Amino acid sequence: MTATSKLLKTLILGAPASGKGTISSRIVKKYNVAHVSSGDKLRDHIEKQTDLGKEVKKYLNEGKLVPDNVMIKFMITELNKVENKPWLLDGFPRTVGQADALWKVQPVDIVVNLVVPFDVIIDRVKDRWVHLASGRVYNIGFNTPKVEGKDDVTGEDLVQRPDDKPEAVRKRLEIYDSITRPVIEFYKQKGILKEFEGRTSDEIWPKVTAYLDPFFKK
Ligand code: AMP
Known about the structure:
- The protein is an alpha/beta fold.
- Helix content is 49%, strand content 15%.
- The strands form two sheets. It has a five-stranded parallel β-sheet. A two-stranded antiparallel ribbon has the order 5-6.
- A hairpin with a 4-residue loop joins strand 5 and strand 6 (136-139).
- Helix 2 (38-47) packs across helix 3 and helix 4 (68-81) runs parallel beside helix 5.
- It binds adenosine monophosphate (AMP).
- The site of adenosine monophosphate has 15 residues, from helix 2 and helix 3.
- It comes from Mythimna separata.
- Monomer.
C-alpha cells in the first residue's frame, strides 16, 4: 500500500534513551508526517493546567503509567484531530490494552521498533551531567564541560540526575521491557513489526529510511 492510495499510520517503539526522540524527529521531517507524541501532549495539558493535566500530573511526576481508560480516550481523540495527513505515533500504545483499543479504531500500518543494547543505553546516560539551576545538560565526549564537573557559564557543580544513575536506568529499562514486550508481540503477530538494531541513532537511521522510503514514495 503506498501513500498515494492511503495515509500511512506509523508507530515507533523504543526504550527510554534509545534514541527514539532523535529518530522520530528525523522521520517527521523527512516524510512530512504529523508527530503525535503522548508524552508531549500530556505535558502540554499539565502546563496549561487543564482538567486532564491535573488528573495525570501525579503519574508523570512519579514516572508511572497513566491508566489505560484515560490514555485510550485521550489519544484516540487526538488522532482523530489529525486531518488528511499521515502520522507518526510516539509513546502510545504502551500496554496491550491500549494496543487493542487502538487497533479497533485506527489500525496502524507500520511499526518501527528500535533495538539498542541496554548496556549501550546505560553507558550513554552515565555520561550525562546537568547544571540543576539552569537545566543545562552536558554529555561527556559529545559536549563535554570546559572544566570537568563544572557548569561552563556559572562554574557551579554539575550533578547526575538520580534517574540517570546506572542502577536507576537499568531499573527503568527493566520496567519498560516487561511492560512493552507484550506490545511488541502484539504487532509481531499482526505481521507489521520491523526491528532496527544499532548502537547509535546515526547507525540506525539509514536502515529506517531504507525501509520507509518505498512506503512513502509517491
Ligand atoms: P514519555 O515522554 O513518552 O516518556 O511519557 C512521559 C510520561 O507520560 C510517562 O512516564 C507516563 O507517565 C505518561 N505516558 C505517556 N504515554 C503514556 C501511555 N501510552 N500510557 C500511559 N502513560 C503514558
